[in-house]
Design a protein that fits this description.
The complex is a heterodimer of chains A (73) and B (349). With 73 residues, chain A is mainly α. Chain A has one domain. In chain A, 51% of the residues lie in helices and 8% in strands. Chain A has three helices and two strands; from the N terminus they run H-E-H-E-H. The two termini of chain A are 24 Å apart. Chain B is of the alpha/beta class and 349 residues long. Chain B has two domains: 176 residues, no CATH class; 100 residues, no CATH class. Chain B has a three-stranded mixed sheet with strand order 4-3-5. Chain B has a two-stranded antiparallel ribbon with strand order 1-2. Classes of the chains: A mainly alpha (73), B alpha/beta (349). At the A-B interface, helix 2 of A face loops of B.
């Protein structure tokens, strides 16, 4: 979240990606950076133990959300 | 308790509920803090209230001397404990892990504070019986002062920025004094260049505290092997290797010392004997190491570096990864070491 917010503030469009169990933490981090309501993509947990095919599926699933937050038409 | 005291108690209770409602506690009641009470704490140090003791750039937050004092007072410290609290924060900053964000980690670590020198007696820090347990205000509240500072200065609250999966009871408090009086070796602080007459706090970051039951032997190698076996438990291994603080009871320390062992000898033994075979690690799925994170994982994981399963694997990366401290009571009934009795190892009489 911190990286996403700092990149946005530096003028680089960015979308943060977190897994669902970290929703509260993600919001707290956005608050700590003075950016409550910072929009991010939340995906199912876990990621570290996924196979490559499962990772690709996660990316496909999150892509529409990610593009929407980036403002891609 | 007379009536006027009870009247005050109502006001105190109202204040405690206020602090709880604000989320400024660890779940236990805190002591109400006024500016004049805070001033008593700040008077105990030559540091400026605005001085930063520990900062976390990733959160853009810092714990100043003033914030440390507020939280020490909330925790129930007496003002004269405050120099120890300040030293604990300084030691935690020097330790390095908290600054890098370990207190936000799912691992759920806690600070472990070890106090040496004359300040122990001066403020009544317990170094003897029940040293990790309850019952001593200085131990209880100095450790808690750090926890409340972590919560209130950095906002590291559970379910928010503190992402601990389970945490540890040490998060309430974990502060001991070394039992220098019953230790056969110089105090821990002298290993860092301080003199025995200095007072000091050594802070380390722990994930857990494991009790070792060992009153069966008078052979130092057997006792050391028992300790090494606990250090090398597979459940401790997240990275390739670990570190350990070994807190010996005075009897165990004397057993080692009377057999001629120094603290570096013990650390060296742990380094050599805190080992697992490749097969034991494989049985727990921790035989390989990730090429990316150096975390342990099974050999068939796509990130796993090639691994040979024959031969012992050290779980400590150097003897310096072992800290040896002496604390607790000399009452466990451990058989003393002697040249003659050394042979009757492990036998009950």
């Amino acid at each position: 979240m911190a990286d996403g917010i700092l990149l946005e503030r530096a003028g680089l469009p960015a979308v943060s990606i977190c897994t669902d169990p970290f929703a509260l933490t993600a919001r707290a981090m956005a608050d700590a950076y003075g950016f409550p309501g910072f929009e991010y993509v939340s995906i199912p947990h876990p990621v570290a133990s996924l196979t490559e095919a499962q990772i690709r599926a996660r990316v496909r699933d999150m892509l529409p959300d990610l593009l929407r937050i980036l403002g891609v038409e | 308790m007379d009536a006027s005291f009870v009247e005050d108690a109502v006001a105190v209770r109202r204040a405690m509920e206020y602090y709880a409602d604000q989320g400024w506690t660890d779940g236990l009641p805190v002591v109400p803090v006024t500016e004049s009470y805070l001033a008593e704490f700040l008077a105990q140090t030559s540091r400026d209230p605005a001085d930063v003791l520990l900062s976390m750039p990733q959160l853009n937050r810092a714990c100043t001397v003033r914030l440390a004092a507020v939280n020490a007072a909330l925790a129930g410290c007496r003002p004269e404990y405050f120099p120890v609290v300040v030293a604990a924060w300084e030691s935690l900053a020097a330790e390095g892990y908290p600054v890098k964000g370990i207190w936000q980690s799912t691992t759920g670590t806690a600070p472990f504070l070890i106090v040496n020198g004359p300040v122990r007696e001066r403020i009544g820090l317990n170094s003897r019986g029940n040293v990790f347990g309850s019952g001593f205000r200085a131990n209880a509240t100095i450790g808690r002062a750090i926890r409340l500072g972590v919560i209130n200065a950095f906002g590291l609250r559970p379910h928010e920025l503190d992402q601990a999966t389970q945490g540890t009871p040490a998060k309430y408090t974990c502060c001991i004094a070394e039992n220098e009086e019953e230790s056969p070796w110089p105090g821990l602080h002298t290993e860092f260049g301080l003199s025995a007459s200095d007072s000091a706090v050594t802070a380390i970051i722990i994930r857990s505290c494991v009790h070792i039951e060992a009153r069966h032997t008078r052979v130092p190698e057997q006792l050391a092997t028992d300790i090494a076996g606990t250090i090398s438990r597979t459940g401790a291994l997240i990275h390739e290797t670990i570190s350990a603080a070994v807190v010996l009871s005075p009897e165990h320390a004397r057993l080692f010392a009377s057999a001629g062992w120094s603290k570096p000898d013990i650390a060296r033994f742990m380094y050599d004997h805190a080992v697992r075979t490749g097969a034991e690690l494989a049985a727990a799925g921790k035989e390989a190491v990730s090429s990316k994170t150096r975390w342990r994982l099974p050999a068939d994981h796509p990130d796993a570096l090639p691994v040979a399963l024959d031969g012992p694997v050290r779980v400590l990366n150097s003897p310096a990864a072992v800290l040896v401290v002496v604390a607790g009571a000399g009452n466990a009934g451990c058989p003393p070491w002697s040249r003659r009795s050394g042979r009757a190892a492990g036998r009950r009489r």
